[in-house]
Amino acid sequence: MPEEKKLTILQQQKLIKPTPESLIPELCDDDMMKNALNFITWLRDNKLTPRWTGIHTWKINYRSKYICYINFAQPQQHQKFWDVKLNRLFLSKYENYIANDELKSFVLDVIQPQMCNRKCGNLKINKEVFKKKHDKICACWPFLIKNPNGEALKNLKQLIILSRDILVDLTAAIKT
């Protein structure tokens, strides 16, 4: 009898396309789990449905345009975390939409100069955001919010609503 091949995590998830809620308990510690579940519930309440796109990764779209990705650490990484990566399109748009100093400060705090994990050749850009110069920002994922909780979660939700509004405005501008 031939030996049965064991499916990889990707193959397993591709078959079932899991919801984040189904995996969060095994991928997060208690506080992280509470915050991640709260966030996913909030997304669904705001008609922003997570769509599985890869191992422990979900894409959040609004009217077929993506707002962000939600990623969870893979168990073999021996650490537990989750992060949200906002669409790089918003890097140049937020200045026109954000008046609140607290939210401006949050955006400046989550701009990431770190190396990304994409195969873009580690492309970096220089950009001025809210009159502050940023050198070598990751061109793929300029925004990274890791393990959001408390104020970070509140600000992230505001940015997502703002991002949704930006997409609505951009779509309306294209149609006129």
Give the overall average pLDDT: 87
Q: What kind of sheet is the major sheet?
A: 5 strands, antiparallel
Radius of gyration: 18 Å
The CA-CA distance between the termini, in Å, is 65 Å
Low-confidence stretches: none
Shape: globular
Total domains: 1
Helix coverage percent of residues?
40-55%
Which structural class do you get from the secondary structure elements? Answer: alpha+beta
**Residues in β-strands, percent:** 15-25%
Number of helical regions = 6
Give the spatial strand order of the biggest sheet.
1-2-3-4-7
Characterize the structure shown.
With 176 residues, the protein is α+β, with helices and mostly antiparallel strands. The protein has one domain (9-114, 143-175). 41% of the residues lie in helices and 22% in strands. The chain is built from six helices and seven strands; from the N terminus they run αααββββααβββα. The strands form two sheets. It has a five-stranded antiparallel β-sheet with strand order 1-2-3-4-7. A two-stranded antiparallel ribbon has the order 5-6. Strand 2 (57-62) and strand 3 form a beta hairpin. The mean pLDDT is 87.
How does the SSE layout of this entry go?
Layout: H1 9-16, H2 20-27, H3 30-45, E1 50-54, E2 57-62, E3 65-72, E4 82-86, H4 94-97, H5 101-110, E5 124-129, E6 132-138, E7 145-146, H6 150-175
Antiparallel strand pairs: 1-2, 2-3, 3-4, 4-7, 5-6
